[in-house]
Amino acid sequence: MRKKRVAILGATGTVGQQFIQFLHKHPLFEIACLTASKKSAGKRYSEATKWYPNFLGKGIPEEVGNMTVVDTNLNAIEKANVEIAFSALPADISKETEPEFARAGITIVSKSNVFRLDPHVPLLVPEINPNHLELLKVQKKAKNWRGCIVADPNCTTTGLVLSLKPILDFAGIKRVFVATMQAVSGAGYLGVSPIAINGNVLPYIHGEEEKTQNETLKILGRFEGDKVEPLNIKVSSICNRVNVDYGHIEDVFIETEKPCAPEEVKEVLRKFRGAPQELNLHSAPEHPIVVRDEEDRPQPKLDVNEGKGMSVVVGRVRRDPAFENGVKYTLLVHNTVRGGAGMAVLNAELLARKGLLN
Amino acid sequence: MRKKRVAILGATGTVGQQFIQFLHKHPLFEIACLTASKKSAGKRYSEATKWYPNFLGKGIPEEVGNMTVVDTNLNAIEKANVEIAFSALPADISKETEPEFARAGITIVSKSNVFRLDPHVPLLVPEINPNHLELLKVQKKAKNWRGCIVADPNCTTTGLVLSLKPILDFAGIKRVFVATMQAVSGAGYLGVSPIAINGNVLPYIHGEEEKTQNETLKILGRFEGDKVEPLNIKVSSICNRVNVDYGHIEDVFIETEKPCAPEEVKEVLRKFRGAPQELNLHSAPEHPIVVRDEEDRPQPKLDVNEGKGMSVVVGRVRRDPAFENGVKYTLLVHNTVRGGAGMAVLNAELLARKGLLN
Amino acid sequence: MRKKRVAILGATGTVGQQFIQFLHKHPLFEIACLTASKKSAGKRYSEATKWYPNFLGKGIPEEVGNMTVVDTNLNAIEKANVEIAFSALPADISKETEPEFARAGITIVSKSNVFRLDPHVPLLVPEINPNHLELLKVQKKAKNWRGCIVADPNCTTTGLVLSLKPILDFAGIKRVFVATMQAVSGAGYLGVSPIAINGNVLPYIHGEEEKTQNETLKILGRFEGDKVEPLNIKVSSICNRVNVDYGHIEDVFIETEKPCAPEEVKEVLRKFRGAPQELNLHSAPEHPIVVRDEEDRPQPKLDVNEGKGMSVVVGRVRRDPAFENGVKYTLLVHNTVRGGAGMAVLNAELLARKGLLN
Amino acid sequence: MRKKRVAILGATGTVGQQFIQFLHKHPLFEIACLTASKKSAGKRYSEATKWYPNFLGKGIPEEVGNMTVVDTNLNAIEKANVEIAFSALPADISKETEPEFARAGITIVSKSNVFRLDPHVPLLVPEINPNHLELLKVQKKAKNWRGCIVADPNCTTTGLVLSLKPILDFAGIKRVFVATMQAVSGAGYLGVSPIAINGNVLPYIHGEEEKTQNETLKILGRFEGDKVEPLNIKVSSICNRVNVDYGHIEDVFIETEKPCAPEEVKEVLRKFRGAPQELNLHSAPEHPIVVRDEEDRPQPKLDVNEGKGMSVVVGRVRRDPAFENGVKYTLLVHNTVRGGAGMAVLNAELLARKGLLN
């Protein structure tokens, strides 16, 4: 089968670099276009980017390094004849660019937060709400686009909703409290000063709590023919930054509708599978959720790469003594893989398999 | 006024070292006796202890360094003619020793967790429950002791209850969820390997969650003539270790009985005063609770020494969207000062002022 | 005495912020002008700068926060009627600006590295080479300037030369090898990613080795009427970045000309005094060099603030077994105080005392 | 071929755990006996040890976990019918035990430092001095032992000598200065407090400097029929602890006898091979030394696992300006693999291949 030609928008930043890692030698996709700002356009990719070895482990794949970076504009994209664009653009640019590209027929899978709560844009976690892709028809019609935008959720939200979905189906959920300990990579390579974070906890991440609260309700919401009705539960979160490289820890307290024993919850988490597993998608982990029984896991340093970073690791599942029916646990999500470029690529694989590209 | 002669039980460990810091040149107390295990007995203190400069900033006070360490036994204590003993003994030893000393007439202020939930032992936070000291009469009678035991709470609990008390009085509390990020010093100087904690979060601290849940209810409970009736609310906690030297961060979600605006909560927290402030006790901070308005405070690295480590710092007070009536916030408590030797000394100051020594 | 009016050039960056700390309420100087780039000009200082609490401990002094930032140009400086300008400008700007201001009569004390090796510019460590200030006459004449430029050395160099000077005078020096472990603050607040430095050593700092090698020879060189003849010794350095907030550690191996016992070296280091001590300058530490006898000191975490950050701390002084005559030791210098704004201010105090400010 | 039965002495400590990692499923060796102190004897290994997941990545191999630990004594060893014993015993115990076992016919490969400088004991780095194994005949005869002791060098020394050997052969060496930045794992799992090392450099490691200086001369020395004549050069070292998990960095300044261009040095380092490579031993890395050309490598976080931790990584090779003939560079050695159990196993492989195991 011919590989789909893809563009990476904002390819020289750290998220763009991660897209390259996930898309290089991908069985379905072929990197056909790397875009960046005007000042990088015309340069070889290896000259235009500052490749961060700590982020990625390996150097720039040679053939990617030799590609010429183009300016982020429609001409360039169309000249490269791409079908999909993975967007790692900053919010202010994605706001203008993504709709323009979608109008012109490109399918955008976006890491930007600009359109996540747009009622016409599916906010996709492929194990949870693949049926929200039905929104794309509505979107194309409403916006009069030939292409479309599919949004990827916030990293913290992604870990949370994956753990909530099986519990929601099993016992119903009334209320969720979550306190997070998030890795510095979530802020970008130079987003946090070592002086600020060494031996410290930063008890605030701009916009993060709103994202986790709002996105969760949309992702778990019900598709109702022409829109997604958000889930009607309460979510409250407090988000902190800690000095971990990769992997967000989340402490979750849940009030369920029905009684549920911790062993039952562990079982439904372990058995959870979704469309990526059923369709055997290339980037799908065998177990979307890995449950550990040890009292002191998950730990970012030991568990972040579970399922090549695509599995959420849940531990310490136990009854919550402050709810009549409740459970509490700790989860770990790899913020730049399952919560980042890895899931965007998984989303694109789902689109491809469902025949939603063109 | 003649200073009270005091002993430090378990003086060579890190908590013992902290007692020395707080008791050296104290206006009410005079270090008269340093005890340790048999293997240290007979040595000069400066030879018997491995003084950790990072814990304490300063070296051993010279006159303390020259004192001779004695074995932890009643003879030694009585020979030294002490009235109070600050106990930094490990649990298994304090279990035997503290009652023996109390029987013989010594007042024990104990950092051990052995007797914290004993119905006859007051679990004292001097700003909150000084009236629980009435239990001492009950205790002495029930146990037929001439002295007594006063217990100090767990460090995490101490920070939590100080923040809860003004809210409880103002709006009533139904439910509390707390997720903690605790400093490595809480585990002792060599309690955690740097390899385990560097770039990591350890999502478990043995026994900590039970302590925070149970001790909170007792401290906030009502003294009823001959016993303390625990407060009838629900508390659920999840405790984590992070790579911070000093200062525990706690994320708190509270369901209140009555509506309460964040600004009201901040005001009652700021205005909170207790017996130590009213009595102007030596170690009392002017403000037991310091409220900060910045969106990114408290931070351990910036705020841990507020009020010489005796103030709890609260920030990010806001409505909790998941409760009809609720508030959430982040607090910081210095685990080895307000949550450690500092508060034990403040407790002893209260006992002295109330004439409860002898 | 009327205070001298001073400008801080590049006042919104981290070095500029440090100048504010050292110059606020200074007995000789008065902050009269804060400059920054065009985009900050016209704003109140507190709005124009992102003040980093971790760097500085305290907030912006209120009267400084209320000052209006001006563009870095001669008009603004002249309008403010300043005599001295402390320059925290980036190299490319200082290259143009400092000579222009000097020409117009301003005395520049510069943290920039642009003019450090200019044969007409004194590279000043006030305890070591105050006589190099004689160069200023030569400079003014050669360049036809009414003002002048005095350069501050690189932070690593400053610690090194302070320790070398007494040994040079006592025993002569033939060769120096130095390996450094430098704090992240040396790279600026966001100069190093936490992901890059956590649990790591970065074995390279751009330009640092050349600076330590070349600047050392100039500072220790001899003033010969119209120029400084660099010291004729060999210096070789290897510079590393480690995850320390403040304080550079340097391991130094020295071949001396004459035999010198470690005890003698310690004594000459301890007794070392210079012009700032003799003249009792405001920012002068009592002991430019503090020697510790413990086998495991100096340590950045324990010793960096010795002498309010103005003392170099030397430890582990012992014979070097690989030289016939040699000594080796470890030193610690506070890179943003003695190696930064602190010494620049001390240099200005020396200029003021010597009557060299117009 | 039948596998050789081996014992691990001191198997429950962290070095013992590493031996298990390297010996489990080894093609030549079979773990036949695990010894520990009396208090562990009789327990299943999985109960007797506290297995540190961070050290080793993986859990205890099941069949090893089920083995019964025995007391460290000759009876137990003989009953298990082992030919080789890998010793991870503490110095005071190895001093008594290793000679006793050697007398009884066991070949000891020891990580202890007790016998490293014993003139009859080869201090083996298999790429460098395999001919020192000739000492074993002398040893057996002199001590009247049926077995023998082969010593493994200190971890820091191992990295250093591997880099020195090709330069010694190529250009001769007169003098070496080395400053180290050593990982915390070198002190054992709980050997350093996080409070002591976070944001700090500890400028002292007990005994380390003497080891690097003395062991280097012996390893590079010449075997002369019945003894090893230490190499006649000068070595001076300063050793520091930094907050890195694994991997010691060493800054090396070398005075050579002959001129040598950096490019030549890089070439001889890259081409260096020894007996393990020639004999294609199981644990031998293809390249004992990997040379990197980037200006900012090696870094522990990026390079420590080069050659599965068995390659020394050298970077920043350049002329040393302080010597007439000299070179300087930075090296990285994995302290618990090439500098630990990994090299001990490689040494045993060499013994086996040379027919030196009885």
Characterize the structure shown.
By secondary structure, the first copy, chain A, is α/β, with parallel strands linked by helices. Chain A folds into two domains: 4-152 and 341-353, Rossmann fold; 155-333, Dihydrodipicolinate Reductase, domain 2 (2-Layer Sandwich). In chain A, 32% of the residues lie in helices and 22% in strands. Chain A has 14 helices and 14 strands. Chain A has helices at residues 14-23, 45-48, 53-56, 62-65, 74-79, 91-103, 135-143, 155-171, 194-197, 208-219, 262-271, 275-278, 300-303, 341-353; strands spanning 4-9, 29-36, 70-71, 84-87, 107-110, 148-151, 173-182, 222-223, 228-229, 234-241, 248-256, 289-291, 312-319, 326-333. In chain A, the strands form three sheets. The first copy, chain A, has a six-stranded parallel β-sheet with strand order 3-2-1-4-5-6, with helices on both faces. In chain A, strands 10-7-11-14-13-12 form a six-stranded mixed β-sheet, covered by helices on one side. In chain A, helix 13 (300-303) links the parallel strand 12 and strand 13. In chain A, helix 8 packs across helix 10. The longest helix of chain A is centred in the middle third of the chain and has 17 residues, at 155-171. Chain A is globular. The two termini of chain A are 16 Å apart. The model of chain A has no long low-confidence stretch (mean pLDDT 96). The interface between A and B is large, with 43 and 43 residues.
